[in-house]
Every structure is written in C-alpha cells, then in structure tokens.
Design goal:
Largest sheet of chain A: 9 strands, mixed
Radius of gyration of chain A: 21 Å
CATH class of the largest domain in chain A: Alpha Beta
CATH superfamily of the largest domain in chain A: Dihydrodipicolinate Reductase, domain 2
Protein name (chains A, B, C, D): Gfo/Idh/MocA family protein
Keywords (chains A, B, C, D): Oxidoreductase
Distance between the termini of chain A: 36 Å
CATH topology of the largest domain in chain A: Dihydrodipicolinate Reductase, domain 2
Pfam family, one (chains A, B, C, D): GFO_IDH_MocA_C3
Oligomer: homotetramer
InterPro entries (chains A, B, C, D): Gfo/Idh/MocA-like_OxRdtase_N, Gfo/Idh/MocA_oxidrdct_glycsds, GFO_IDH_MocA-like_dom, NAD(P)-bd_dom_sf
C-alpha cells in the first residue's frame, strides 16, 4: 500500500485536532493509502519540536517552505489563521502537493480566487484540494444530505441556520487574533457563518445566489492582553445576520454570533420542504430530527434519528448503535474522504472551488451590510 | 334533548376541576344530553353555598343524601376523599343515580368490591359507573392505546411507569389528610400508583396478574398543622415501587413517589414491544413518542407526535394543530365519554369493575410488601 | 359587584375561544366585576343564534351596530377578520364601549392610526382598549418578561423569533380569506409576525426602531374552494423574514411562515443578553428555558422552568404544580387583565397604541421588502 | 519518563476500543508514564497479527501466558469474555503485572472473590487493578458524583436506573456467546446491570445492601448461527429488574434489557435527593440534568449542563466548550486514571474489590429471583 506523507502547518487548536485525526483514521477505516505524519511546521522551532513529539509527528521545522521540496511529503495540511492560507496553499499546490486547508478558505475573495486558480492548475496534474468544513462530516448531517437528495423533504422552502457561541458575552474578555480584521478577515461571519453557508450548500446541493446582510460589533474596544490597562479596537463583526435566496427558490436566514449566552457550539440548521423537514443542533450532534410529511397526520412527527446505525454515513467503521461519536470524529471522516479521493483520483468536496463560492457569499454579505442591507447578488466570478 | 341533572359531592381541588369540566363539556362537544349543574354538596352549608356560586351550580346543600331522592338529579359526581366513596356511591347507585367517582375507587378491596357489587346490580337497570382515572383521556395516551391496539408495537415486553411528584421533599412540610391511612387508605400507592396501574391496563388492554412490591415511608413524623410544635405520625407510604407481570407476559416496573425533587406531575410511561415503542410524560402532555421498529434502521427513531391533529382522539372539537390542551381538558373528555355512554346506554370505561381490578393490584402490592416483596398473585375475586 | 355586559362580534374560531374564556374567567379568578355574556353578533341571523346557544350568550343579533346603543353592553369584543376592525372598533369607542380587538389591530397603519385616535379620545372618558395579543398571557412568557425586567439577562443582544406553521405546505390547499390581501391585509406577516413583534416589544419593554425585510409568496395560485377546477391568485405573503434593531441596540431576526412542514404552532423566541438567555417554544408552552450566566460555569446551563408554580404569573388561580395549562388559558388571562383594568381604571396592555406600534413595524417591513430590503426606520407617527 | 509496557488480551469490540484509547491517552493528557503498546494476544495467531498491525501494537502472540514473563510488559489489559477473566487476571497479578479487566469482573462471585484475593496479595507489592466500568469516566457523570459529594442533592431518596438496548427485539436474531450462561455468566444482568450497579455505587459513594430481583427470558430458543435450520436454548436472562436498598436508606429501581425497541444504548440514571436531583441519559452523554431545590420555586428547574467546560472533569485536556466528546473518550479517561494511579502509587477505582462488590449485588439479584423475588441481603464476604 502506498504511503501518503503529510506535513502539518500550525499546531494550535486545529493542529491538535488534525493530529488526532491523522493518528486515528488509518486505524479505524480501511484506507487505500497509508498516511504518514512526516513533519510538523510551526513558527518557533522549540514549540514545533514539542508539538511534534506530543502529537506524534516524525519531524518538525520552523520553515514550512522546506517541506515543499521533500519527496516524502505529498499533502500539506494548513491549520494556521486565515491570513497565511493563500501563500502556503498556493506554494504547496505549485509544488505539486495536495492541500487540505482549514476554513474559511481565505480572508478575501481575491485571495480565495487566487487559491482556486492555483488549485485549478494543479488539478490538471491530479493534485487535489479540500477545505476543512468539518461539519459536513457529522454523520447526522451526511444523512440529512442523503435524505434531501432522495427527495424526502421535497422542494426546499426555508433554511434556518444559526451558529451560536458565547465566548464574547463578557465585555471585558480580552482581544485576540480572531478579533483583528488583518488576521481573521472577519469575525463571526467568517469563523462561524462560513460553516453555515458551506453546510447549506452541501445539504441542498445548490448555492446561495443573493443575500441581504447586517453586521454588528457590540463591544467596540476590548482589553489588550499584553498591555495592562489599555484597550484596543475590535475590527471585526461580533455578529452577522443575513437573509439569503437559494438558486432553487428557498429562503434562508443565517445568524452567526459570539454573544449567545449559554450556547457553546450551537450550530443549528433546520430545513423545511414541501414534503418534510430536517433539524439539527451540533450540541446534540448524534441526533437528526426528521419530519416526513407523507406520514398520516395522526402518526407524523419529528423523529429523533440517533445517527449511530451501521447503515449511517461513516458508522460502519465505528461502534455499535448508541455508542455515540464526538466532535473529533468529524475530522477523522474528513481525512478518510480526502485520502480516499487522492488514492482514487476522485473529486473531494468541498474543494477550493466550493470554498471560493462560500467566500463569495460572505463577501456579498459584507457588501450588503455596507449598503443598508440591500440585496446583493453573489458574484459568480469566472469559475 | 334530554337534560342530565348532576349533583357534585365535594368542592375542593377535584370539585373545582370537575365543575370547570361540567361547564365546558356541552359548549365544546356535541353531546346527546344536556348536563345541568343542579346541586353542589359540601360538609359545611356556607362553604357549599359559596362554592356553588363560584363554580356555577344552581343549588347547594350540606346533606348529600338529600340529593338522592331528587328526580332532577341523574348523576352523582363524587369528589371527596377515599374514605367516603363507598357509602356515597352505593347509596347513589341504589337510588338509581349514575355515579362518577374520583380515584382511587376506595381505600380497600372490601369497599371497592361492595361498590362494584352495587354497580353490578344497578347496571341491570341501566345505571352506569365511571372512575375518574382522567389520564386515560389525555389525547396522546388515547392515541397510544389505539396504536397498541392496531399492533403498532407488537407484543409488549416492558412497561416502565413512574409517577413522580415532589411536594414532600421538605421533611418539615406538615401532615395533611393524604398522609393519614384512615382517610386516604394509602399514600403514593393509591394516589399516584393507582393512576399508573389503570393506565397500564388501559394501554395494553390486559391486566396485571402478579406483583412484587415495596413501600417506604422516608419521614415518619411531620408537623401537625393545627398544633404548633407538635408532630404526628405519617401512616401511609411516601413511595411505592413494584414489579408486575401482565397476563400477556410483559414485565412492568412501577414507581410512585412524592419525593422526586423537581418533578412536579411527572406521570411517565414507556412501553417497549416487539415491533415498536411508545413513551409519554405528562409534563409534556401534548406529545407522544413513538418508535416504529418496522422503519428502515437508517430513518427509524422516536418521533414526537404532537397530539393536536383533528384526527387525534377528542381533538376535532378543539383548536387547530399546535394549539395545545392542558390538564383540565382530560376531565372534559371524561365527562364527554360518560355522558355519551349514559345517553347511548353504552359501557363506560373505566367502570367500577375496572376500578376494583386496580384496587386488587394495589392490595397485592401491599401484601407483597408485607411479605418481603414476595410475588403475589392479584386476586381475581368472583367478578 | 358590578356587572360588565359583553357583546361579542364574530363567532368563528376566535369567537369560540373568547366565549370559552368569558365563561371561565369569573369562575377561576376573583374578578372585581362580573362579566355577562350579553349578546353575540354575526353576519347571518341563524348562525348567530345557533352560536349564541352553543357558546352561552344570552342574545344574538345580525346587526352589531344595534348593540352599541344598549346600556347593558359595556364592552365590545371584536373577533372578525382584520378588514372590519376599524369600523367596529371606532364606532364602539365613540359609543362609549370598552373594546377588546383581535390582532392584528388593522390591515393598515392608516386604519390602526384612526383606531388609536378614537381610543385616545375615548380614554379621556375612561374607556379602555386592548389588542388580543394573547401570547403575552402565556405564564412562561410573562415570567420571561419579569426576569428580563429584573435584569436577569442583562443587556439584550439578540432576539431570535420565529412563528412556524405548516398549513400551506400542500400547494393544492385551497384559497381562504387569510390569503386575500383585501380581507387579511397581509399573510404570515400580519397573522404570525404581528404576534412576534408584540411579544418582543413586551418582553424587552422596548420597541423595534428599524427593519430590513423580505416577503415571499411561494405558491402564486391556489384552487378556489367554491369553483371546482379554477384557481385564484394568492395576494398575500406566504412567508415574512425581517431583521430588526431595537431601541436599546439589540438585533432581532424574525421569521413567520406557513410552510414549515411539521411545525404546527411553533412560536419560538430566544433572547440572549449580557447576563443570561431565555428561550421558549409555544408547542411546549408550559416551559421556559433560562440560562443564568452568573452561575459558575461548571453548573450553568439552560434550566427548564415548568411555569406552573403558584408564584408564577396567573398560576395561583389554577392547579397544583405540573398540572399544565393550554392554549385557551391565555385568553382567560387576557380577559382577567382587561376586566381588572376596567374595574380599577388602570392601563391595560397592549392597548391600541401598542397595537399601532406593531402595525408600524409591519408597515416598515413591507416598505423595506418593496425596496430591496433596505433598512427602513419604523415611523413614529404623532402619537 | 518511565514507559509502561502494555499487553492486550482480546481484540474484538473491546480490544479495538481499548487500542484506540491507548493510542490517544498520552497524546492528549500529560501522563506521568509513557504507555507502550507492546503486545496484543489473541486465540488465533493470524488474527492476532492482523489486529496488532491494524491497531498499532508492536508484537502479537496467540499465547497470553508468554507475555507474563516479559520484563517489558507491566500491565495486562483483559478484553476477553467473562469466563476467562479469572484465570488471566490471577496469573497476571501473580506474575506482578498491573491488571485492567473488562466488566463484569467475573461470571460468579467465587471467581470474583478469587480475583480480588489475588489482587489483594498483589497490592502489597504495589500492583494495582482496575475494572472497566467506563461509564464512571463520562464527564457528565463524574460531575454528577462531585455534585452529590458536595451535598448538592442532599440525602438521596431515589435511584432510578435503566440500561436499555434493543438488539434482541427480533426473536429470530441468532444466538451468540452473550446468550450462553457458560461464556457470559448472565445476560442483561451482568452485561448491562453491572454497569448500573457500579455507577450507583460510584455516584452515591455507598453500596447496595439488599435487593429484590426478577429475571426474564422472553425468547427461550434462537437460531444457531452455524447450523442452519436449528435452534439452541438461550441460557441467560433477556431482562433483569431489581429493587434495591442502599446503605444510607435510598431506594433504587434497576432495569436492564435488550428488548427496549428503539433504545440503542440508553443507560439512564436519575437520583432524587432532599435538596435536588440529577438525571442522565448516555444517548446524550455530554449533558447532565441538575435540579437545585434550593433555588426559588419561580426560577427552579432542571438545568441542562453541557459538560464540556474546562472546569469539568477531564475536559481541560480536550476541546473548547460545546465541542462534544463521544463514547470512546470514556476509555481514554479510564486509562489516564489508571496510568496515573500506577505512576503515583495511588488507589485506582473501581478496583477488583469494587468489582467484587458489584458481583455480589448481581448474585443477590439472582438468588432473589430464584426465591420469588424475596429481599436478599448482599453478602459482605470477608473483604
């Protein structure tokens, strides 16, 4: 069996989660290639070495460019903040490496478009890309997509999506890189809203075509963590709200916020169609609610499907029914799908083109917000 | 349309609820007879007069026997504590009055058997009885029965029933009549457990045939409300637990308690069968959970049926879907069924015979508890 | 005790519900006046007579104007479609009758403003008005308001409100008056959205000041019920979505639809504040979810308050804890509050001024929808 | 840092789960020793080799006894069916190896007592034992224990525990080793009930002292998987029900079954005390319900604690709040605790003595069931 050498760039929260997934994926799934955790890249040599030891990577380096010339590295896994995605991803693609890039794809449409251009060139040489919209790999949501594709909810009418967190509720919580436009691009919009948009695209298998959006920064200044007594400006949105129209005529409401007190990772989505409905909340990630309008009214109702049956997506490899999965397993599934696509020369999803489409929706939201929430078409670009 | 003159005996909590139901039933349902709230009976003349005015009864009296000779009284509705049920009910039946009697039917099997004997005699003259096991009239539970009768859960294997309240959690809460054996007969067993047994009989359409039970009094003495500083003995059970076998082979676990902190009126029942399951909690009384094991495993799950559709039991007379009902409506349904049975010379359920069967189960629990929880057959009596 | 003579205009769904509430309110609550169901008005003499008999009104008439000159009528209760509200209400107020008017107050701001003008004149003579936004009288929601007023959720950041029904999911369901602009004014917006706006005003005790809205009609034509084989145009919105800003800075998302398959009467609202959150769903109307951000993180969580305690709003008059209430009781509470305000010369809420404020928000939504969802200020009028 | 050489015996379901946990534990937690997956033992050489490769064990063998003489093996992890636990565990302990043994500890009290005797001898040499009651390591349940220990629910009154699965609902499902008394010891009682008993002991920190139990085999014969057309007897219980008394006076109801249609891994426990209550369902394993009776009645209610905060047991090592854990993580926590105890010469729990106490409760249930459910004291043995 061929090995697939992996280089990880970044070793904070996402790097740790990806490492755990790389360690696990080949032990649980029958993969067509054997992933090798070849090298971990960080900005500081010491920290990278320590992280490599802890997370089980063979080597470490503080120079991510050095891994691009190595023959034993076939895939670059980018877990850094958004402002460095474009440079790393384009270099890696140009060097003939497959690229898995954390979301959102980039901090701007321009960057994302350049990345997709590089991906498009690379694709001709069999080089593949994937964006880390891991929630697609929640079994309950993969099941939701297959139910929709099978016509079980009919024509979609409403998409109601919100991603609710609460870590900024306290106005005295300090600033970090996620609150700086130059690092993060945007706030709740890109961090949380991007997941919602990709998920909606995935579930409905159709795109958002226009939006009306509003952005809000509730707390304009926050303490600087390294400068006691001083505060700095928050330059991103605290909350993003937008209404959307899908190509097929469905209406969507989207809300992303870090101010929903008591909601910890409340990614929720409900879709109402002419023949049924689906509802999901990540805080109960093993459950999918499904209403089948074709049932007799007397016995119809939202059923709570515990998505842990062997016939559910990804589940055959795991545990008996009811032995629930967690957040980290979405990444195992993501890697399984990407590795399989690479081995089989398939078309992984979401690829950079899909990531760019999400970016264009976010951009339209920002443009709408800047124009009194007027409806804005999502630009279609050349791709 | 014939009128049906009603005499109410007792005007505390249950009397108030029945009054509201008598006022409502003919306004909402198309009844074959017109109930008249003729007379309210209480122990004290003043209180009875006041209650009659408040609850809308034409007359009042402190002599319940006086109503038995009145031609304009056709039905006696008994809402007194259990120790007076037998005398009132037997007298009323012998006087040719239909009787609706609050649960439990009596404080002992002997009394209940005498009442059923009187009912049996009266039945020959077209006089009917009903016991106030109102939870049968929760639409969601009536629906549950019809699903079971239609074979939707197959052969019942498990019945898991509990009735959880918490008003005795505080050991300093004072004694009242419900804690005195001479008034109430038993404690949680007769007050709450009786509902569970009747409900199980109703849902499965088969009886409990043997039990193994345990009774517990957690707090042996409590303050006497009228004698400051003094305490009196609690002479009933605080909690009753029993295991039961049904005629058809199903196993039941029953638990009734007034010490379940935070559970207010938590009447819960779950039934697992070879082809499906049903679950219910009165605190969400408009919902029935139904699992259909015949569904493909990938889309199976407990569905939450909101039992407010026009096709659901009793619902046609009420509001549009989703406009939920409450506790009091179970009594309106009870009266609707009893009045209808009287007009149509039908067979109301649960009648005194059904009440007696419940009493025999409670008695078997008490006998088992007195014999180290040995299994006890439920006596079948002559009836 | 003084009597309060009531005339009911309209006897369809709302008329039936109000009748039940008028029958009940004085039996359950200690009222300072005794309401008398004096006369029921309908368009057709026969139907009115029948309805009066069924619902327990002393007299009936097909001429609502005739009741305005009766001395024994003190209050007119308007349960007709929106297009007749203004004429009836203004006439009644000018005749010195208190007016309870179903929601929405009117079909246009102009009508609503004229009604409020009449109400304002009448107020000087001690004549009072109320709009039938009954959901304010759900105990769980009245509790929510008192928690917010007590500062338990701090500064409100987000209001997330949706009112989901599904009776139009089937594209072949026929047209009725609710789908005709000339009768109903608007569709989901006025029927369902009006409740959400009033509820948000009530809970936060502050108004919506600007909105960005979108309206959608998914199915443009539907069968005409009386003309087999022919279809007619739907002239109202099937769904209404809007984003709102509150005076205090909170952001709101509102959604009203009749296309949410499986949601029957899903009026939901969640409010996130700097110190806590509240959440509610009418389909579980006895429950309020409350998160107190002041709790230690280890034991914090949304608590499910079963709003059936004696200390909860309206509950003292009802049943023991856990003996849940239903939809109809919200109307009993509404009448209790209005009758009390009349007797005590108080200030009932929501009065016509409050109803007008809601109407202005709906109007701003319509104007915004007509201008590509641009933000529109809610007009403040002269009042 | 010292290494801890591990030998795994058995590589079916439990062996796979333990392997994943051994791979993960040192990557996520800061351990005082470094576990090495030294050798995997199976009955068949080929299968063991394959499993070792897949699960990442350095070597494999078909002779578990051979590992007991190896110096590089310090811990034996037993994942075989119950009938081989005693021999392997006693040999390993006598050879000076720490032992982690899957539950139930043994198939009989005699075996369990012999194992505890060996453990007791070994303890004097610093050799430690642990039984694989992994549900103790669900963060929500570890939190529950700490709340109880802190007095947050006061004196326990009721324990209501059930473990509901449904894989035997189909009467034509074939026999496997779990349905054979000679391999499994008992059925639902030992497989599921054992977890409930250990969990109750853990949460309350006190033991069951007497029981009244009933066992049931609903389907007496099932198809033999290897002999088409023939059936064999089921020699274990399909369901086990028992009532229990705890040393401190609390009453428990326990139910374990494989016939609860639609319940997949429904391990549920609710504890009601004089000052509050706790409730848990493994199918929503990241949530703990907690009712604090000390709250004002108006705002009291069961709160849903999402047990994913950094301050919750085990959580500091994992992901941000709301990024939920799954079944497998309970094993990671188990290993973390056992490795830590070994390194620090602590007292791991539950050790073999705790496992023996559980076994004695199960034995008392069997004896009671054999004596018409008479109450049986749990034997205290010499230990």
């Amino acid at each position: 069996m061929n090995t697939l050498g992996v280089a990880l760039v970044g070793h904070a929260f996402m790097g740790a989660v990806h490492s755990q997934a790389w360690r696990t994926v080949g032990r649980v799934f029958d993969l067509p290639m054997r992933p090798e955790r070849a090298v971990l890249c960080g900005r500081r040599k010491d920290a990278a070495r320590e992280a490599a030891a802890r997370f089980g990577w063979t080597e470490s380096t503080d120079d991510w460019k050095s891994v691009l010339v190595r023959d034993d590295v076939h895939l670059v896994d980018i877990c850094t903040p958004g402002d460095s995605h474009a440079e790393i991803a384009i270099s890696a693609l140009d060097a003939g490496k497959h690229v898995l890039c954390e979301k959102p794809l980039a901090n701007s449409v321009a960057e994302a478009a350049a990345m997709e251009e590089a991906a498009s060139r690379a694709r001709r040489n069999g080089i593949l890309t994937m964006v880390g919209f891991n929630y697609r790999r929640v079994p309950a949501l993969a099941l939701a997509r297959s139910l929709i594709a099978a016509g079980r909810i009919g024509t979609a009418r409403h998409v109601r999506a919100s991603y609710l967190q609460d870590w900024l509720v306290d106005p005295h919580a300090p600033i970090n890189w996620r609150l700086r436009a130059e690092r993060a691009g945007s706030g709740a919009l890109g961090d949380l809203g991007a997941h919602l948009v990709d998920l909606a695209h995935y579930l409905l298998d159709e795109d958002v075509v226009s939006v009306s959006g509003a952005l809000e920064t509730f707390v304009a200044e926050r303490p600087l963590p390294d400068e006691p007594g001083r505060a700095g400006p928050v330059t991103v949105d605290d909350a993003a709200l937008f209404t959307a129209r899908f190509r097929g005529g469905a209406l969507g409401t989207f809300e992303a916020t870090r101010y929903a007190s008591g909601r910890k990772n409340g990614l929720r989505i409900e879709i109402n169609g002419s023949a049924g409905s689906l509802a999901f909340d990540f805080e109960s990630m093993n459950e999918l609610s499904f209403h089948d309008a074709g049932e007799p009214a007397e016995t119809a109702g939202f059923r709570r499907i515990l998505a842990t049956e062997p016939g559910h997506p990804y589940l055959e490899a795991w545990y008996p029914p009811g032995h629930v999965l967690g957040y980290e397993h979405t990444f195992v599934h993501e890697l399984r799908d990407f590795v399989t696509a690479i081995a089989e020369r398939g078309a992984p999803a979401p690829d950079f083109a899909a990531g760019l489409r999400v970016q264009r929706v976010l951009d339209a939201v920002q443009r709408s917000a800047a124009h009194h929430s007027r409806w804005m078409p999502v630009s279609e670009g050349e791709s």
